[in-house]
Amino acid sequence: MDARAVPTWLHAQIEYLRNNAPLPLKVENLRAGTRGGHVMDRFTLLVPCCLSNVKWEVVFNGLDAKVAPDIIFGVDDESFQPLANSSEFSPGSFLRDWTVTEPNSLLKLILVTRGSYLDYQRHRVEAVNDPRVKFEINTMSGLQGLEMCITTASDRSEEVNFAVPLVLEVEAPHLPGSHLPSSTLWNDISLQVKFPLQRGQTSAGPPQLKLVAPPAMREVFDVDDVRLPVWPGNICLVEYIPSLQQTLQQQVREARASIALRRSFMEALFPFFGRPLEADATYCRRISLLASSGAFTFLVHLALPIQFPKVQPTLTFQSSQHFDTRGRPLVSRTYMDYPWSPRWDAPQMAQRIMDFVADECIAFKKQCNDLLHHQR
Amino acid sequence: MMMLMMQGGMEHVELQPLQEPVLRYEMRGMGSPEDILLCVDADAEVNVEMKAGGGVKGLSRLDAVKQALVLFVHSKLLMHPQHRFSVATLSNNAVWHQQEFTNDMEVLIYCRSSVVPEVEVQLPGKQRLFTFDALYLHDKPTRDNCPQRVYDVLVDALERVSEFEGYIFESSSGSARVLFRHMCVLLSHPQQRCPQDEFDAPKDLAKMVAPVPRTSSSGGLPQLRKEGEDDGSGPRTF
């Protein structure tokens, strides 16, 4: 963002929102109001709702900081009328009292408008005249962080969506000498539930279920790998969640234990290979080693899967002395089939990897020499 | 030729001896993406021929260095696809061709035995994430050149500028294979480095003695023999 083209007061509002928003709000497409205009005073805002994003356009007047912004909602939300409510903490009151002397005005306005938007969506869901949806709503009021909305699918049919964060109890990471509690509550994983509507009615079968997690979690735990417990017969969401939580808790515990196992394996490589060139010390998914066999110097790249040690690391050799016709160093195939047992302790695993590398690097060197010979 | 590399760094990794006579390695630091500037010295001495051997054919110094850079870049990207690179050249002035970094990183390849560099580094304030390496190729010392002085200036610059462990190699043997090997050591991520004297890779796997039978619970750590090969590591006089 070129700050010179964005008015300073607006830049301050946007930066405050970016750095302090309690939810993942995203500012995109910051632009001027006219083609070739110099003042960039409008943008698209992605607002999370029910684990998806709705797009709002936020329009300021870059030449007058005293003028409150306009917000343009999506085409499907024409009946959303946040200004109809003029009570104290409504969007209307924030717009009426708009000022940029504090940098948090935009963020406060967006959060309170989002709150109104969620209420509007809730009323839409409550208005669905379907016994199952009504039953779900009646049983769910106690769920913390629940959101609901109606979305329109690509074929113009409607879906009722519920989204609820799952609270999991996991062991805290072991930090020597710390006095942190032994377990913490995780609520990064959410469950999204869709009930498609046909002519205003849900169907009899189970709803569509999806687990949603922040992308960074993939290094440790992939929610797409989770086999969701079967939705038995005529239960409601509130009854389904506890068994899902238990399944998830177990799998998350295993994934976190795997990090510790990966770490001790990587550390066990040191007496055999010396200091690694680079290691992913946070999630322990990758490590690269420098090795030699006589005059042949090469690198070994290891990738450790989330299911380590049940699934063994993959191994790739890379020469430091052989290059293809484009000058790139020669790299071996990925090895996934060398001797391995998850029951070995870390030093044994490291020993066996070293044995394999010491043997196989001779073959790799020969392959490289043969390849170069054919290149000439 | 000299290569100065600046990379990001946080904590040092320490070796902690335990009760057993085994050095235990604790991983620390983040191993996060780096921005690396490669700076090549394009001066007359770059045409000196390098020694062939170890499967590497004879190359001019400049070609060997270019190949070493390609090796470096590809290796770095295999380790972490988010590392980024840019290029500068050095003749009388340094010309930085693209400037797209958020962290300051510099690789300078220096190839002059007779011209002492003036290292003027202007950094905005003290950059927390900044490491500086050097790789210097030169002729053997004679009466008409001054590679020792050049080397000393480089060591001084490295110590002055580098917030974290910087590594320096020099070579007059002219072996491209050894150049590539030094380059591989410079791949080591600054956030996870130890002092250069303690860096002990690569180990020669061909010299590893077979350990005690694997049924033993100790895991059978190998006995290591010290490598006899001179790899030119660590600051010193020559």
UniProtKB/TrEMBL annotation, chain A:
This is BRISC and BRCA1-A complex member 2. Keywords: Apoptosis, Cell cycle, Cell division, Chromatin regulator, Cytoplasm, DNA damage, DNA repair, Mitosis, Nucleus, Repeat, Ubl conjugation pathway. It comes from the Eukaryota. Belongs to the BABAM2 family. It is found in: Cytoplasm; Nucleus. InterPro entries: BRE. The lineage of its organism: Eukaryota, Viridiplantae, Streptophyta, Embryophyta, Bryophyta.
Automatic annotation (TrEMBL), chain B:
The keyword Aminoacyl-tRNA synthetase does not apply. Keywords: Cell cycle, Cell division, Chromatin regulator, Cytoplasm, DNA damage, DNA repair, Mitosis, Nucleus, Ubl conjugation pathway. This is BRISC and BRCA1-A complex member 1. It is found in: Cytoplasm; Nucleus. Coiled coil: none annotated. Belongs to the BABAM1 family. It comes from Sphagnum jensenii. Residues 210-238 are annotated as: Disordered. The keyword Cell cycle applies. Its main location: cytoplasm.
